[in-house]
Amino acid sequence: MKCAVCDSVFDDGVQCGVCKKYLDFGCANISEAGYKKLGADRRAAWKCPQCKQSRLSPAPSNDSSILENILRELRDVKNQLAKLSTLVDEVKCIKQELSGLKESCEFNGDQLDKQAVRISNLEQKIPDMQKVESSIEATTTDINALKKGLALRDQWTRLNNIEVKGVPVKTNENLYSIVESLTKVVGYSFPKSQINYIARVPIQNSKEKYIVINFVNRYIKEEFIAAARAMKHITSADIGFAGNSQRTTKLNHKFLNSSSLGNLKRQMGMRFEDRQPPTQHFSHHDNGN
């Protein structure tokens, strides 16, 4: 309990029967033993010094009561103001957080506006991109058609090639003379002008070089191959290489991407093969040079 006079806290005291306030024994001007000796009725009728004095002079007692009420209210206001200071600090923190949230929302709004502009620009470009895609597809189709056409043309050009293997390499050799010797051996002659070009081409992982002959007329080439097929074998000595009569020189023919024609199966001394025109790593004789 709290004393109504000195505001001190106490465990045991007295209560005024008039104002019902609690007082400690010191402020009540009565001892604990004296208060306890009073009977129940007398304790209920006991009056505090202020109430006793108010019977003699009511006006001053009334003013004192009013003053106490004012002081009590002032203490309450003081306590509320102390709490209000904490509340103001909390409101400031909330205000700062709301300000940061507002800035974040404004930033996100700006970003959304920018993204909307970008999306709008992309949507405007979609028709142009579709046109470009269609153009690319058409161009790709044209390129594939050109590739096929070039492949067919290249394959057709290679049909005029013959590959001659097994002919020894000589210094300062004349490939046209070697071909002329071959025509005499196989018994089929053709004008030199029917040779588009003739060249030596190295064989991979070998010191040997074969001869590639490109004919102007494919039928001349076919007849030359047919004449070579009729020979059982052709040796290097047959075409002017003295001291070398081994049956190691062979003449076959084959076509690129044409399994039905394949390599010539008959084993001959010299082999003729259709061959892709060489483009590097060989010496090359053009017709008429």
UniProtKB/TrEMBL annotation:
InterPro entries: Znf_FYVE_PHD, Znf_RING/FYVE/PHD
Top-rank lineage group of the source organism: Eukaryota
SUPFAM superfamilies reported for this sequence: FYVE/PHD zinc finger (SSF57903)
Identification of the protein by name: Zinc finger DNA binding protein
Species whose genome carries this gene: Diatraea saccharalis
